Amino acid sequence: MNTRDTGRQLSVPGNYSLNNLLDIAIEAARSAGHILRQRYDKPHDITKKGAVNLVTEADLAAEEAIISLLSQKTPDIAIMAEEQADSHDLDQTRAMWVVDPLDGTTNFAHGFPFFAVSIAFLQQGRPLVGVVYAPMLEELFSAQCGAGAMLNGKPIQVSRAKVLIDALVATGFPYERKARLPAIMQHLQQVLEHAQDVRRGGSAAIDLAYVACGRLDAYYEVQLNPWDTAAGWLLVTEAGGTVSGMDGAVFSPFIPHIFASNGLVHASLLQLLQ
To answer: Can you say how many angstroms the Cα of residue 70 is from the centroid of all Cα atoms in its chain?
Structure first.
């Protein structure tokens, strides 16, 4: 689904404009990014939500800063945030912010600078504003429905690769991977056989942003959450790309898998993934 086709028909609650909401999202992302940058090379207080799913003190501090700013500037808009478990059951059709304060926590904890803050504004399940900020790379990706996608204020577009052998494809591996390992390896083998190469960076938000700006030609992953994909979905579609489920169905950030591409290789790669 291309958000540009329908997003303009959606109303924004209160007295906010999309420009206003985008400015607020950028401010919140930069505020959280400053916290992550300050704590990047310091010892971390690490806990686990599963065998390999980490949470650091930086996740919590960055999320607190984002929620504080969003609550102050948009008090009538709900917030779904990764580390706020009670927010995960919000009505999917209502206006809401969807927040990942640190996408790529494992990278952050290991001193690998490929991580980002991801913030999206959704109305009726569709993103109207999206921001992905990679603080260590000093790259801020932003998009507003119907207005295109930007990297550090300059317009971006998806790549023009037309065939899989010319395509650089990214993927990610789920935290609970043992039961899924045969399917993961089957997908990976198929893609490796037909694409130019594969990358695994460890941040869904940045992978989607890289599809949007043409550094990657496609990206797929399973076992994701709304805060992983909501902002990146808008970036890709506003940059001229295509986003669907890995089964080819219309995408929603509330389904746990995603396939994004420049649109030109979508059908051929989708066939491999199915």
So the answer is: 19
**Full-model pTM:** 0.94
- Residue 255 gets which letter from DSSP? S
Evaluated on CA atoms 122, 92, 173, 103, the torsion sign reads positive
Range with lowest mean pLDDT among 9-13, 48-52, 102-106:
9-13
- Cβ atoms of 39 and 61 within 8 Å: the answer is yes
Q: Are strands 149-151 and 46-48 parallel, antiparallel or unpaired?
A: unpaired
Q: Is 131:141 a contact under the CB 8 Å cutoff?
A: yes
Task: Name the percent of the chain lying above pLDDT 90.
Answer: 83
DSSP string, 210-237: HHHTTS-SEEEEES--HHHHHHHHHHHH
Give the CA distances from residue 112 to residues 52, 108, 176, 271, in Å, rounded to whole numbers and listed in that order. Answer: 16, 6, 22, 33
CA distance 1 to 197: 26
Mean pLDDT, rounded, for 77-88: 93
Task: Round to whole Å and give the CA distance between 94 and 74.
Answer: 14
Q: What is the pLDDT of residues 181-192, one digit of tens each?
A: 888 999 999 999
Residue type, 142: S
Helices (H) and strands (E) in the chain, counts: 7, 14
